[in-house]
Amino acid sequence: MEDLKEIRKEIDSIDEDLVKLLKRRLEIVEEVAAIKKETSAAVYDPGRERAILGKVSDIAGPGYEKDARLLFSTILAMSRTRQRSIMHGEPEIVKRIREVCETTPAHFPSRAVVACPGVEGGYAQQACSRLFTLPTILFFSGFDNVFDAVEKGLCPYGILPVENSAAGSVAAVYDLMDKHSFYIVKALRLKVNHVLLGVRGAKLENIKHVSSHPHALAQCSQFIKKHPAIKTEPDTNTALAAKKLAESGRMDGAVIASRACAELYGLEVLAENITDAAFNYTRFICIAKKPEIYPDAHKFSVMMSLSHQPGSLNGILSRFAAVGVNLTKLESRPVPGLDFEFRFTFDFEARARDESVLKLIAELADDPQIEHFTFLGAYEEA
């Protein structure tokens, strides 16, 4: 144990020296930034950074060069951020977040015109009624139309599903996020209770076809497997499938939907508790054309495309870890038209007035290795 104590003393001494040297290096970086500001030189000098990384790799030697590159890549990123703050000031996105925090009302509205996918009785409508006390709901046939309604100002708000605890992310919504201009202003986790519905007088043993949204079908896969005679038919919406069944009157058809659809469309419950997981939740987001950041906002969402090189994602993740931010979701989607290029959506827990988080946003927004950065919103998730 004495040997371990002596070794740790040496480590403590080295750590102290490292911190002093890091502090001194950042002070010199500030001097460099002042000179660059006067001469209008660029912050990012890729040739200089490559030379530094090559040099430290040589000094570290074969056994430690990867560790040295990782450490100095982080230091160089810190240096660029410090230079930018001196040369360019705070990025516009951070200024905008501060402004929105000050101008957003204290409470989320209880009444609003809201765009929803599907029809009455769908889970999106139920989420909307949970988020707003007295919403005026306009229903649209697809997710793209909900985005359009908000983007074009037809509806101040829109409701969209983004993730289910059993079936995963709603890929279609994530694919549309990059296409439209919007902000997330609130989110909700809604407990989903699926039942099997049929027309009045139908019997479970006579059912040959079951229709619903693909996610709902996936969430009830075990029930479907127990009835091999039943064929599944995907539809765009659970409630819309229920409405179609009621209008068709098919005795051999059924739908997977909410219990609310039974009363709405005159259907009967043929089977209950058909969901695979007892705790089945769908996460919905409420979007708006302009950002709104309410005082109780505790979650951020951002989207970014990273340079196609080794370690780029790891470098971003290390920044979140450095400020103690808890990532709750990381979603990657291919960029349309570009082979092997991906866009990442990050959800993380943070307060919009937290200076360390705003500094992180500033770093990400100004990083040249991040080819595309979008702030999607800071919001409360109920």
Task: Tell me what you see in this structure.
It is a single chain. The chain has helices at 2-39, 46-60, 65-88, 92-103, 123-131, 143-151, 171-177, 214-219, 221-225, 238-248, 260-265, 312-322, 355-366; strands at residues 111-117, 134-140, 157-164, 168-169, 183-191, 195-199, 209-212, 231-234, 253-257, 267-271, 281-288, 299-306, 326-334, 342-349, 370-381. Helix 1 (2-39) packs parallel to helix 3 and helix 2 (46-60) packs antiparallel against helix 3. Strands 1, 2, 3, 4, 5, 11, 12, 13, 14 and 15 form a 10-stranded mixed sheet that branches. A 5-stranded mixed sheet has the order 8-7-9-6-10. The chain has 13 helices and 15 strands. It is an alpha/beta fold and 382 residues long. Among the domains are: 1-89, Up-down Bundle (Chorismate Mutase Domain, subunit A); 106-192 and 281-288, 3-Layer(aba) Sandwich (D-Maltodextrin-Binding Protein, domain 2), CATH 3.40.190; 195-271, 3-Layer(aba) Sandwich (D-Maltodextrin-Binding Protein, domain 2), CATH 3.40.190. The chain is elongated, with a radius of gyration of 26 Å.
Please provide the ordered H/E string of secondary-structure elements.
HHHHEHEHEEHEEEHHEHEHEEEHEEHE
Under CATH, the topology of the domain at 106-192 and 281-288 is which?
D-Maltodextrin-Binding Protein, domain 2
Beta-strand fraction estimate: 25-35%
The separation of the N and C termini measures: 51 Å
Which CATH architecture of the domain at 106-192 and 281-288 is right?
3-Layer(aba) Sandwich
Class of secondary structure makeup: alpha/beta
CATH class of the domain at 106-192 and 281-288: Alpha Beta
The 3D shape can be described as elongated
Approximate helicity band: 40-55%
Overall number of strands: 15
